Request: fold
Amino acid sequence: MTRTDIINSFIIKYGYKSYLEIGVENPNNNFNKVIDVPSKHGVDPQWLQLPSFGKKHNCTSDSFFKKWGKGTVDIIFIDVLHTSALMAHGASTLVNNNNNKRQ
Ligand SMILES: C[S@@+](CC[C@H](N)C(=O)[O-])C[C@H]1O[C@@H](n2cnc3c(N)ncnc32)[C@H](O)[C@@H]1O
Reply:
């Protein structure tokens, strides 16, 4: 089972309508294989190719979060630098956004 299989299984099981991938690199490796939900966003300052579907954000996660504001998303795949500080920052920003929306 691949990362893509796991993401797609969540999208199908819970009927998710929005997907965000932080750190895409070559979209053919994962992003393009993720089900084309209505709101599909990828963030990377160094894309190797255009995505086949969805919105390409050619920037770092920090720039994206400023632009995204209090936006929410159903499922997020964070796959950037595997340092705990960056992962924690990205995760907490998005979890806060989602929690605030549900209040
Ligand atoms: C491991 S690759 C992504 C692989 C992809 N998710 C996949 O499943 O095939 C990591 C990517 O993170 C990007 N990256 C590094 N720092 C980033 C940041 N601060 N914000 C967004 N993307 C970043 C790099 O440019 C690189 O393309």
Observations:
- The mean pLDDT is 88.
- The chain is about 40% helix and 15% strand.
- The chain has one domain: 3-98.
